[in-house]
Write a structure and sequence with these properties.
With about 400 residues, this protein is of the alpha+beta class. The chain has 18 helices and 11 strands. It folds into 2 domains: about 140 residues, no CATH class; about 260 residues, no CATH class. Helix 6 packs across helix 15, helix 6 packs across helix 18 and helix 7 runs antiparallel to helix 15.
Length: about 400
Amino acid sequence: MQADPDERHARHRVEEVQGLYGTFTFSEHLLQQIWARREFNGSNLVTQEGRRVEVIHPGRWNLLGGPDFKDARIRFDQGPVQSGDVELHLHAAGWRQHGHATDAAYDRVLLHVVLFPEAAAPPAVAAGARPLPTLALLPHLHHALEEYAAESVIESLAGRPVPAIMARLRDLTPEALAGLLATRARERWQQKVRYAALRLDRLGWVAACHHGALEVLGYRFNRAPMLDVAARYPLAAWSRGGADLRLVYAAMGDRWTLHGVRPANHPWVRLQQYAAWVEARPDWPDLIDAAIQDLPHPSWATEARVARRTHRLADLRAHLAARICAGRVGGTRLDNLICDGWLPLAAAHTGWDLFGLWWHWWPGDQPPQLRRVLRELGVFAGAARPAAHGPLQGLMAEILALEGR
């Protein structure tokens, strides 16, 4: 069976999106990826027509012709579970533009999923003038569109060289390169703080910490189901011993991604790790709140080795691992917790600019290709210029910008 040319080129159908710090491209293929992984909050989905939607299963990703997802299981308005197909577009007009209403291949579509909500958009109509519910996914995403796009770029780097970025950055003077990385990293930092503030507004301090911790422990392939675990089982349930790990694990069923996941990152192992952490430190979000008051504020412009020595960041790292996590989380995953979770939340919580601390912190789990690029450019050079979180984030943002051009 030949792929429909229109469907085959879904990854090339893109939208120029205005982000916080300029435009970037967002592809329909990436929207399909988000749907397949269920990287959205599924607890309060409502179609543009006002119908409640529960996604029991998103369906099989169809890479040939026809609807994007086959044999999905959807429940509307708490009624019976229906089996059918799902079609995705960036905008509601995509259904009409691609002629799906008159194509028999789309007769089993139950739900039209779009990225952007558009109140004035004409409703999708299937064969026989059947009205088709339309769900706008943007309000339910866990992160900013820029973050999804950046993650997609990271995944695309796996196993391939990055000559385009090297050719561009080699032409810059060391001063210009440092300035570019700092500017891009600042954009990434401000974006993370902005979404940390939204999480705080929606959840409050304790729940925001709880959600952020489980999300980081699920990084990168099991973030979405870990966030659902956080929503279903709040921190109080864990601290009272009410979160039976067998039930927690079973609740996500086939949503767990196990293929290609290292044993240490297996979701069952990570759930056990979090349970041991909460058992030892049931009030760990309060401990973070108290620790914020003593955080140093190094200048990002200081050399990393100097900043780390002057502010005793290695001692702080060990203290946080012991005091907050009771030694249950360490290494690169602890660095992810600090940089992706705690510091943005702390900045949103206090209004303090913690960019310098975030910039100089250890990298955490970052693609090795990015480290190699910065080593080749001389940004990282052993103990004299150690690898740090900020420059890697800046490079990631610059690659995202290049991919979008």
